[in-house]
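mind reviewing both lines:
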Amino acid sequence: MLGPARAGGYAVGAFNTNDMEVTQAIVWAAEATRSPVIVSLSEGALRFGGDALVAVVKHLADRATVPVAMHLDHGSSYAMCVRALRWGFTSVMIDMSHADEETNVRETARVVEAAHAVGVTVEAEIGRLAGIEEHVDVSAEEAALTKPEDAARFVERSGADYLAVAIGTSHGAYKGKGRPFIDHARLEAIAALVPQPLVLHGASGVPAELVTRFRAAGGSIEGAVGIHPEDVTRAVRNGIAKVNTDTDLRLAFTTSVRETLGRDAGLFDPRQILGPAREAMQAVVEERMRLFGSAGRA
């Protein structure tokens, strides 16, 4: 998926799932927009849903009419990645970005060897995600952003198929104040040295409309702000081929549940609660796919 995406100037969305409804929302959105898609499962999701969740993802992926990849997100160890390979994942991420370069290279290369033996691709990460606020003087060293020359050296030594880079984004709903800054010049420099597809983590938009509705329904999420759509599209033009999204789906789900329960205090049918939430998440995923330029590519 990602090679054609980078060559074609678009990105494939990787959306985190934790249960059947989220997975359905992701896959149905991909079919509605005719988009390839990556369904991501974190170690937390696997602890929550176990092999039953894996079976749900595989079931929906196998029956989809568009390409669907099943991806291990932020695998913490070689053992976890091998476990995912045995479960039938089509892509795994080994995240040793917190370790020194030699350890990161060594452990990534181990995963690459195992994964490539069974036809599975590997994502790795160099640098650490850190939210940087616009107009704030923060050095690259303090923010642990990815250095272009380090990225090129790491990919060559480790054999990783695609690389997650730290260029100013951060996980969660609180990515800074105003319009969180992305270091586009740094991304351009990395892309010039690294031909492999690049990955953007921590890129949720945290739509203001959803935040407003969440608060109106009784939720507390003060100061939440995401990555501006123009920054995402510019990053995609500059080499990002995979964009991760999780927070936006969580926000859409929870907002819908709060609103549904708030409208009817006597409601207790899970289908009437989860159905609208699934529709809300699907709408978010479809919008993201159009933003990434992957709609109509499958």
